[in-house]
Amino acid sequence: MTTLASGTDTLTRDALTVLQPGFPGTTAPDWLLRRLGEGLASVGLFGRNIASPDQLAALTAQLRCERDDVLVAIDEEGGDVTRLEARTGSSFPGNHALGAVDDVELTRAVAHELGRRLAACGVNLNWAPSADVNSNPSNPVIGVRSFGADPELVARHTAAYVTGLQSAGVAACTKHFPGHGDTAVDSHHALPRIDAELSVLEQRELLPFRAAIAAGSRAVMSAHILVPTLDPDRPATLSLRVLTDLLRGRLGYDGLIVTDAIEMQAIAATYGIERGSVIAISAGADALCVGGGLADDETVRRLRDALVGAVRSGELPEERLAEAAERVRGLAQWTASGAAAASEPEADAQTGSASAGSVTRVDIGLVAARRALTVTGAEDFTPLTEPPYVALLTPVANIAVGDETPWGVAAELERLLPGTETAGFAGDDAGSVILKAAGTRRIVAVVRDEHRHPWMAAALDTLLAARPDTVVVEMGVPQAPPRGALHIATHGAARVCGHAAAEVIAGA
Q: For 161-208, how does the pLDDT look when each residue is reduced to its tens digit (9 = 90+)?
């Protein structure tokens, strides 16, 4: 049963209720359990908290022994951004791959299966999907996390994803409102700015969010971006004009509004996390995500005290905090009721559309990854029969993706062609270093967003000039022209994307 410490007043409970903190380790620390007893209603999970499905299920059960209606949230997009499979790579392709296939029934089925696995582990709120329209090819943080650059495509797949995820009883949190796709700055590091007219925003950024709202998305996550057309002074997370006037008013959204991680530099370096949290709740946010970087009791106490102090000073209306807390409890009630659960969709192996169920739960992600491949040069390509040398041209990973999750095709090629060797390379001399390391072995060059990294393009120039039989696998956004003896665009770097590419290279 839910327990609340008798000495905790209503204001303090409400302040704790709107926090969604993280914590270190694979078991809940004592301070977190104590805060759950005092009113904390949500917990955020990250890759550091997960070792296996069984361990995760035990962890969420531990949390629910302290508070049975706790919201357990996770940033599990599938594809490049995975927490459930951070150590191995995801069993599901990400949004860009699903957008490349453009089968909304497949997207719905993949989201449902991902939701089913989360629900089986006790997770009931997923900070996904990304509804951002990746209209800026140089975007350093969205990229393959987006369904694509076409607003209508993004809208229909966002709606399908929300429907599929919530049919498994897991609340969707559509992000990053009002749209992070047209940025050239990562909000983990600084405050991005989108200079677009309102008419452009309406037709591009807002279209997918309208679709998500129509599909019943239980939560929406705000972006730490400045959109002067909407508010020239404050980023969306802190903007009354964006969260209340636009999202609540014009778009008619009445679900939970969650902030992106409040300790990201776009907020922390400009307003500070305490001040930023107060402004966010005042502006219309209902829950504060924190814990990707700051994951301790001191952070929870600081934010709790900042909110309580703001109410007592008159800066934050007590009714606004109470309303936010009530929305958190309302979502917890929805997840606990099981009202979202519906019959499980089956997917056809060839089409991905709902049918008689020839695809098992285990392989729907691989089916999707295979369908997402774009292969150039296959008509003149003879599959490899000898183990190649896999050169991983490795860019710096953005924080959302992280650098702990393996990617590439080497592991799957090793399975098909034992003896395959691999190494990672970066820098202006990468091409010549790869040629020396590979020797006489066939080269498979694996890249990620070649168009954003001049050194990567130069390395391919060097490799293809010396070894025109080099196979190129692009696991980012395939913006650069395809080249190589065989070019495979996977539209993402999930483990299953590497699996599907390896099958083509080895003729499996």
A: 999 999 999 999 999 999 998 877 666 666 888 998 999 999 999 999
Residue 428 carries which DSSP code? T
Which is catalytic among the residues 112, 176, 188, 224? 188
**Distance separating alpha carbons of residues 136 and 192, to the nearest angstrom:** 13
Residue identified by tokens 């994307």 is 497
Q: Is 188 assigned a catalytic role?
A: yes
Q: What is the amino acid identity at position 368?
A: A
Beta bridge partners of 172: 126
Element (H, E) at 119: helix 104-120
Q: Which stretch of DSSP H or E encloses residue 374? A: strand 374-376
pLDDT tens, 204-261? 999 999 999 999 999 999 999 999 999 999 999 999 999 999 999 999 999 999 999 9
Instruction: State yes or no: pLDDT of 285 exceeds 50.
Output: yes
Is there a contact between 61 and 97 (Cβ–Cβ < 8 Å)?
A: no
Supply the DSSP string of 435-495, one letter for each residue: HHHHTTSPEEEEES-GGG-HHHHHHHHHHHHH-TT-EEEE-S---SPP-SSEEEE-SS--H
CA distances from 464 to 29, 121, 311, 461, 484 (A): 53, 46, 64, 5, 7
Query: What single DSSP character describes residue 382?
Result: P
What gap in Å lies between CA 497 and CA 251, rounded to an integer?
36
DSSP 3-state of 217:
coil
Report the DSSP pairing between strands 171-177 and 125-126: parallel
327: pLDDT strictly greater than 90 = yes
Q: Read off the DSSP letter of residue 49.
A: G
Measured CA to CA in angstroms, residue 427 lies from 31, 118, 141, 341, 454 at distances of 45, 39, 21, 49, 9
Q: How far apart are CA 97 and CA 365, in angstroms?
A: 10
Cα dihedral sign, 394-99-254-250 = positive
Question: Is 305 an active-site residue?
Answer: no
**Are β-strands 389-393 and 374-376 bridged in parallel, bridged antiparallel, or unpaired?**
unpaired
At residue 50's C-alpha, the angle toward residues 188 and 89, to 5°, is: 70
Strand order in the sheet with 486-489: 374-376, 486-489, 471-474, 443-447, 389-393, 421-425
Bridge-based pairing of strands 471-474 and 374-376 is unpaired
Q: How would you write 324-359 as a 3-class SS string?
A: HHHHHHHHHHHHHHCCCCCCCCCCCCCCCCCCCCCC
What is the per-residue DSSP string for 228-239?
Answer: TTT-SSS-GGG-
Of the candidates 260, 286, 348, 449, the residue annotated as catalytic is 260
